[in-house]
Amino acid sequence: MSTTTPPKAIDGAIGFADERFATAGFLRGKMKKVFPDHWSFMLGEIALYSFIILLLSGTFLTLWFKPSMSEVVYHGSYTKLNGVSMSEAYSSTLHISFDVRGGLLMRQIHHWSAILFLGSIMAHMLRVFFTGAYRKPREINWLIGITMFTVAILEGLFGYSLPDDLLSGTGLRITQGVLQSIPIVGSYLYFFAFGGSFPGHDFIPRLYTVHVLLIPGILLALVGAHFMILWFQGHTQYPGKNRAEKSVLGKPFYPVFLIKTTAFFVFTFMVVALLGTFAQINPIWLFGPYTPDSITAGSQPDFYMGFLEGALRIMPNWETNLWGHTVSWNVLVPALVPLGLIMTGAAVWPFIEQWATGDRRIHHIADRPRNAPFRTAVGMATVAFYGLLWLAGGNDVLADKFHISLYQTTWFFRFAVFIGPAIAYIVTKRICLGLQRKDAEEYEHGVESGIIKMLPSGEFIEVHEPVKEAAEAVLSAKPAAPALVSGEEEDENGIPSPASRGPLGRARRALNGAFAADDIPIGNGHADGNGHGAAPEDADGHAETEGGDHKELSRG
């Protein structure tokens, strides 16, 4: 049974702080805060660890990088570029790579940690979406996560644009075209950002300030807010034995979680360091300095920008002249529409779901993706849309490696970005329904034991065993299908309520039907998602359960 006294190793530190700030009660309680134990929760931790590595390695690089577009003649260790005119930004990056002790390693660690940061955020957000962990009371934290992801994409774009090599200069040229494509104000935004004609002498110093000061400050604030809200609201957890909406089951913060998370940080740093040591990334010396009349063949941006590159490549060459202004749809639409659809759709989804289902309850138990077919299918359709655009960003590489026409790949992706998500939606929904039927059959008839029995009639049957208690708790935790609250559909005479009339009312009923459709109940109905069993609690709302897990009452 847990107690209110923290381990002796930190009791002295808590007493020291209490004598000065009167924080003993707060700290002693937080040392026992419970964290659920599941591998998927580490996705968010990896994002935090890689962000820390980004800050540390970026600080190292700022000591030698010179954000200047002044022209110099290179004379350094990389002899193949000796005597070549280049910007001071490119020259200093070469200096970091070849003349600063550990400079190339730090550059590659910084770049790989940026890749890992964006990748882990994406994986973490997918986990949150598919399990419904964005629902009340976590809508604000979901919006913070989306904002963090969007800002991190910009930070990555600005970061790999700083060296002023031929590859990053091509990306900046695209950025300039996007700014100019914005109707009416595009040219003003372009001159404001670049300080004159492209590439100019002002943009790299401005980009550097934004990259090392403004956006990291915003990200630090968002990360801080994200974890403060997470700490206050508690964690979601997967359904199972001893799991309930009003409690969290897992390991205490000290010492179990603190030791584990420190070890995970070391593992993450080790992986990034190994990648930085043995996996070459962004070899700018092979690309050469940026010149507006050159471009690298087969150039590709980092993976998180690939879907925008793909949208740009497959967009037809459409332009419109309106009232003396040229609207370049072939640049404006790829730059704004895919990112806007994904980010805006993700941001409003929790509120659309709450409005459509009428579900305003507090949710601390995560859904199994199979039990929410509509949500899971929409999520996979979005993943397919993103993935196809990402593949389209390498249409020239695909055409070269598979020896097919570049125009054929372009036309293929123009149709695939619409057909592929529809196929993904249908297939995912059918898989979810199949898994639901399997769960219902196991709950009703048990699982196959592998034992064959012959009946007196001569018939052979396989003996089924009841599902184990832990598995039964997961199966019985399936929530009921969402339904509009009473009085918002029809009365006893079948007359629709005033709230359900009109376009909005019909849209709400249609969406509610989509969320509630294709639901296969478990047994005679649905359970409440609380699992089975409970453990006695101490004065602070903590309890120790079998296996060394701890239970903590959560807010709401």
TrEMBL record:
Please provide the record's keywords in A-Z order: Membrane, Transmembrane, Transmembrane helix
Q: Which Gene3D superfamilies match?
A: Cytochrome Bc1 Complex, Chain C
What reaction gets catalysed by this protein? a quinol + 2 Fe(III)-[cytochrome c](out) = a quinone + 2 Fe(II)-[cytochrome c](out) + 2 H(+)(out)
Record field: transmembrane: 46-65, 114-134, 140-162, 213-232, 253-279, 331-352, 372-391, 411-428
Look up the EC number in the record and give it. Answer: 7.1.1.8
Biased segments, Basic and acidic residues type: 539-556
Q: Residues in domain Cytochrome b/b6 N-terminal region profile?
A: 13-239
Task: Return the annotated region ranges for Disordered.
Answer: 485-504, 518-556
Q: Which cofactor is recorded for it?
A: heme
Protein name as catalogued: Cytochrome bc1 complex cytochrome b subunit
